[in-house]
Design goal:
With 402 residues, the protein is an alpha/beta fold. The protein is 40% helix and 15% strand. It has two domains: 256 residues, Aspartate Aminotransferase, domain 2 (3-Layer(aba) Sandwich), CATH 3.40.640.10; 133 residues, Aspartate Aminotransferase, domain 1. The chain binds pyridoxal-5'-phosphate.
Length: 402
């Protein structure tokens, strides 16, 4: 996008409610109010020289869509602005963003440090895949920065964090991690999916690379899969070079849907923060609920840290039902408004009985080790009216045996 229509001297940073609509550079030079979809895999060059230049220019948007596309560029400008980074890169899924970033930055003989809990596929990348390529991995308890520092070795190249994390919504101290990494000159990556850039900006706290499953809040409508990498220009170019080879490319149509989703991001996140906090507080006083895990509640063991580094606490509320596995199973089946489905950050409320979901792939001891209790429910609160959500939960709780 060009800033030709607005003299630079007038430009002060937009508020984020405006950035989600216009990016950082104001009005587009094009007459379209809505960006066109460049649904083309390939682009014509006028001269052989121009073609050669396109093929060797990093992040070119008029060469071949795996290298870049004008719709991607438009979305990337908005995401970079929201995360406060110099640049951003879109991918075809959140896992595309995570795997591409990590594979771009490590080589055999390197050591990386990750949390002992991450999004399941991220844990698999660290525990099972990287070791196959000669990369050593250590895991640390995200609530213990001393454990992180103790895990550092001379060949440590990367530290990966994710906060709040599934399923207990434990928090990682982002500026604490950045300080430790800075002393040892180690790159840091944060998966910011559970917070959204409106609730938490890891880069402002010193984290180098911020990743998103844009399938969640950024898209916001549970209809597309997408991922995003936000970092400085040099890091984005380095990761892009790997991206062109791995090929986790976002389709131009889905990039356009992401652009549409972003327009309401600030409205959605504001409502979701409000609904989730209200629902968490309501659940906490209900006799049918054993415990509630939500960083916005004073009862969360890291509430003070969460309040320091987050502006809102997001959609995901985890809670445990009194009565064990069977009671939890009937509770989730009894919900009528909240849909029984995975994912988070969309406009509609979703709920899953975590232990039932993983029953086929994990043993009970494995679940306990991953922090999943048999009576855990994970709910992603949407934008419905709060009284309707409470009524749905109250009804499903009332149906449980006393
Ligand atoms: C969903 C999710 C991912 C993976 O994203 P996809 O878009 O499903 O590939 C990674 N990290 C977190 C925290 C997630 O919630």
């Amino acid at each position: 996008m060009s800033s030709a229509h607005r003299p630079e001297s007038e430009h002060t940073a937009w508020h984020e409610q405006t950035t989600v609509l216009h990016g950082d550079s104001g009005l587009s030079p094009d007459p379209d109010v809505v960006a066109p979809i460049h649904y083309s895999a390939t682009f014509r060059a006028d001269t052989p020289e121009q073609f050669a230049e396109m093929a060797t220019t990093p992040r070119a948007t008029g060469f071949y869509t795996r290298y870049g596309n004008p719709v991607h560029q438009r979305v990337e400008a908005i995401l970079a602005e929201l995360e406060g980074t110099e640049s951003a890169l879109l991918t075809g899924s959140g896992m595309g963003a995570i795997s591409t970033t990590i594979l771009a930055l490590v080589s055999a003989g390197d050591h990386v440090i990750a949390q002992d809990r991450h999004y399941m596929s991220t844990s698999k990348l660290f525990a099972e895949i990287l070791p196959r390529y000669g990369v050593e991995v250590s895991f640390f308890d995200q609530t213990d920065l001393k454990a992180l520092e103790a895990a550092i070795r001379p060949n440590t190249r990367l530290i990966m964090v994710e906060t709040p994390v599934n399923p207990t919504l434990a928090i990682t101290d982002l500026s604490g991690v950045a300080q430790i990494a800075g002393k040892h000159d180690i790159l840091t990556i944060a998966d910011n999916t559970f917070a959204s850039p409106l609730n938490q900006q890891p880069h402002a706290l010193g984290i180098d690379i911020v990743l998103h499953s844009a399938t969640k809040y950024l898209g916001g409508h549970s209809d597309i899969m997408a991922g995003a990498i936000c970092a400085n220009k040099a890091l984005c170019e380095k990761i892009w070079a790997m991206h062109v080879t791995l090929g986790a490319v976002l389709s131009p149509m889905d990039a356009w849907l992401l652009l549409r989703g972003l327009r309401t991001l600030s409205l959605r996140v504001e409502r979701i923060n409000h609904n989730a906090l209200a629902l968490a507080a309501w659940l906490e006083q209900h006799p049918g609920v054993e415990a509630v895990f939500y960083p916005g509640l004073p009862s969360h063991p890291q509430h003070a840290l969460a309040a320091r580094q987050m502006r809102g606490f997001g959609a995901v509320v985890a809670f445990s039902i009194r009565g064990g596995y069977e009671a939890t199973r009937s509770f989730v089946s009894g919900l009528k408004l909240a849909t029984h489905a995975v994912s988070l950050g969309g406009v509609e409320t979703l709920a899953v009985h975590t232990a039932a979901m993983w029953a086929g792939s994990m043993t009970e001891p494995q679940m306990r080790a991953a922090g999943i209790e048999l009576n855990f429910v994970r709910m992603s609160v949407g934008v419905e009216h709060i009284e309707d959500l409470k009524a749905d939960l109250a009804h499903a709780l009332a149906a449980l045996p006393a």
